Amino acid sequence: MSPCDTAWVAMIPNKFYKESKASKDFSLAFPQCFMWLFNNQDANGSWAGNDASSITPGLAGLLALGLFRSHSGDYFETKLNDLGITISSSLQESQRKLSLIPLDVIITLAKSQPITLTHSIEAFCEKIDLSRIQNKGFQAINGCYGSSPAATASVLLHAKKWDDKAFEFLKMLISRCPTYAKSHGLVSTISDVGIFETIWVMHSIGDLCFDILANKNIKLKDKSIKKLFSKNFALIKYLSTLNKNHGTVCNWLIKRFNPVGTVDLDVIAKTFYNGKYFNTYPNERTFSISCNVHVVNLFVSEYRYSKSKKQMVTISDANKNDIIQMIELEEIILNVVKFLISQRGKDEPGNLEETSYIIRLLKTAAKYLSEDTAIQTALHDGKTYLIKHLDESMMVQGYFNTKQPFLWIGKQLYTVPRIIKSSILASLWEN
């Protein structure tokens, strides 16, 4: 949940006021978000603890309260003074960066090339006319803008016309807020980083558990290790039965991304951001191929587990569904692999970390499609590319801040050295 996004949603007036501009029509579209700000402020004046990340939620909360000073009065003035000194240097740096490229140029380019500016469009609501982005080029198929509730709220606030799709999207997000998370905000960041981490663990440990349990030659004498494996393997089986209507881990995962959608394995088409990506990192409000690779790897693990079941004596209706799902799943995996291969390029934007994740997926695919020359070629070229840059990336100080080799097209650029280094090593590790 996100206090920052909750604050932005709290500022949205209702549709009637937006269209009439008459004070008698004024009310808030999401009053519960506004009341949340009053009831959940921290002692330090922010809404997200004491570290540096609390500054943005603090500013958003104050902005929301500031738009309605009759409701906040002196309380607003006090908290604004508390934060004023802290953010002055950050504002100066932001203004310097914004002066480098005119916003009009960026918006024009965005019509033909996806940009991450949309994810943080709320920061530019005083600089550009947000009515300019009310089109299919910027708005996702689910109604949001930039995979961000805050950005979506800013469009509803500042664009000239009301946006029904954006409103329904925010309404849906708030309706999904779990009770246990309400102390952290009423609006989620769309993506659930917990799902991302769960997939990572389930693939890395769960797949290993599968190998160990399937290999009779491996004997686990250490009780603690044996317990670890059995516990995590049980986690996969537990998640697959969270809801009897979901049936499998795949369907459980689909429901987490699209709880009101039809449950099937056509996850590539139905739950990706704008039909292309899963939403991932909530703090960055962006998308990445990384989560997609983990999701598909989880599908691969489940597919392997399903294929390994030998105890099917009779084919019940449930078993028929399992067989159908396995066929569909294999097709999905092949489609994703083909898509990744098609994205390979020598001189186009991409980065080492994303390349590493893709190599992990291609290694998995190569186990089942050993005669597919396209996969083998892409895998060889990608691994060669990573090895080429491995020594330099490990040894040269400031490498990730000054140099960024590219391989894959159209992926997010963010350079966290520890993540990139570990992902490179993981992808090059031979089983």
UniProtKB/TrEMBL annotation:
Q: Give GO BP annotations, semicolon-separated.
A: diterpenoid biosynthetic process
GO MF entries: magnesium ion binding; terpene synthase activity
InterPro entries, alphabetized:
Terpene_synthase-like
Q: What is this protein called?
A: Ent-kaurene synthase
Q: Which organism is it from?
A: Gigaspora margarita
